[in-house]
């Protein structure tokens, strides 16, 4: 699927749009923090300057959020912390297309692999990432205080 996907740095004015995207994914929010929605304060905390926070746009329309580290200080690898598509748009192939565009970006930057952490109860996410070639390698404690299954994909 070839789509006009752009990654645009998140700006302070984007907070309402980010909150709409995040809060549309109530099942994920429940798994991660036990609540259906996130407050503006929680979102501001999540937008750490230590990572890239990018709005995912399709033909100019905001459809999701992507966050990643160029190099995780714990292991030296690039880490994809979040790829979230608005709940109303799931199942249309956008997630796979967005990941493919992100992987191409990493390759252009000379990266040879990327790692992700998946909440163990998030079976749909485990299936999604496995279908894209990610392989499980360990279970670890994430910096947000929850256990995650760690996956890696080499390019």
Please characterize this protein's 3D structure.
The protein has five helices and seven strands. It starts with a strand and ends with a strand. The model has no long low-confidence stretch (mean pLDDT about 95). It has a seven-stranded mixed β-sheet with strand order 1-2-3-4-5-7-6, with helices on both faces. A hairpin with a 5-residue loop joins strand 6 (about 135-140) and strand 7 (about 145-155). The protein is α+β, with helices and mostly antiparallel strands.
Key terms for this structure?
7-stranded mixed β-sheet; 155 residues; single chain; 5 helices
Distance between the termini: 19 Å
Major β-sheet annotation? 7 strands, mixed
Low-confidence stretches: none
> What is the CA-based Rg, rounded?
15 Å
| Range of strand content | 25-35%
Order of helices and strands: EHHHEEEHEHEE
Structural class label: alpha+beta
Summed over residues and divided by their number, the pLDDT gives a mean of 94
